[in-house]
Write a structure and sequence with these properties.
Length: 306
């Protein structure tokens, strides 16, 4: 727990003002790019790619020419790129700050190219061939502007973190991975309502939500849901920060938030792991075991046509 406390304390220190937050992001980008290039593509990212394509195929979420919105597009535009390789779509890349890493992006895209035949063997040879052709065109770009022209992407940075400026009834699909847990909890009702507003009638949303305590990634000896120990008051005082914010919202509440925003649920898959005994703060004591053990929530919704 010493490392856990040290990391969370450092995150609070970096959250003091605009200067410290900017320093954190700049330092993080330098370190992250070296890690991504040297470490190579990871299996969870490949699994995300296969799962996303399978959801879109099985549920028939996309048609040629559709417009897609990727929320929290991050350093690698992963979901957007995967969709563009396998579907003829236009993608808007939406984020709250610019942490793009071109070297890491092209490195990972080249590695994905080499794994397409194995990982997507269930798709037709023609479709795999087209995906590899697009990947080859994109993985040799020298600037992000060239990449966006090649893939028909539009990049938008909106520091407000809201979706108020996103056009209404415009997108066939909104997609994100490991993003929604970073939206401020009190903002989620309006955020999800605006997400639904930007979708065409019948449009879909596909999201992977990470419910793991994010400080666990820095201190794996801590429980994957160590935050269960703390009340909201204690968490805000000792651990919550701007640069490593995650909202601690659990599976039942996520399901309810999307329902309250007017979405209709199509798929709710869990990635779970049994937790060792852990003292629970009162706010978590009513959760069922299956919800306590949920580490990752994979949800697909649609925007009702009526």
């Amino acid at each position: 727990m010493i490392k856990y406390v040290a990391i969370s304390t450092a995150a609070k220190a970096f959250s003091l003002n605009d200067t410290t937050r900017a320093a954190y992001r700049k330092l993080g980008n330098v370190v992250l790019e070296k890690m991504r290039v040297s470490g190579g593509i990871t299996q969870p990212y490949v699994d995300r790619a296969v799962r996303l394509v399978n959801y879109c195929d099985r549920l028939e979420l996309l048609a040629p020419g559709d417009k897609v919105l990727e929320l929290g597009t991050g350093w690698v535009h992963w979901e957007a790129t995967v969709l563009r390789l396998f579907f003829d779509v236009e993608v808007a890349l939406y984020d709250v700050w610019d942490n793009r890493l071109l070297g890491a992006y092209t490195s990972w895209l080249a590695q994905l190219h080499d794994r397409i035949d194995d990982e997507f063997a269930h798709l037709s040879e023609a479709r795999r061939g087209q995906a590899k052709k697009i990947a080859r065109q994109a993985m040799h770009v020298r600037t992000f502007e060239e990449l966006y022209r090649t893939l028909n992407f539009t990049y938008v940075v909106d520091p407000s973190g809201t979706l108020k400026g996103v056009p209404q009834n415009h997108y066939a699909l909104a997609v994100s991975a490991d993003v929604l847990e970073h939206v401020q909890g009190e903002q989620l009702p309006s955020y999800l309502a605006d997400m639904r507003r930007c979708l065409v009638p019948g449009g879909a949303s596909v999201h992977q939500i990470d419910l793991v305590d994010h400080f666990h990634y820095f201190d794996t000896k801590a429980s994957p849901k160590n935050y269960y120990r703390y009340s909201d008051k204690a968490w805000r005082r000792w651990f919550e920060s701007d640069v490593q914010y995650f909202n601690r919202i659990q599976r039942p509440t996520w399901i309810r938030l999307f329902e309250n925003a007017g979405f209709e649920l199509d798929v709710a898959d869990n990635v779970s792991a049994h937790l060792a005994p852990l003292k629970l703060a009162p706010i978590y004591r009513d959760l069922r075991t299956e919800d306590l053990d949920c580490m990752q929530l994979l949800i697909v919704h649609h925007n009702p046509s009526s």
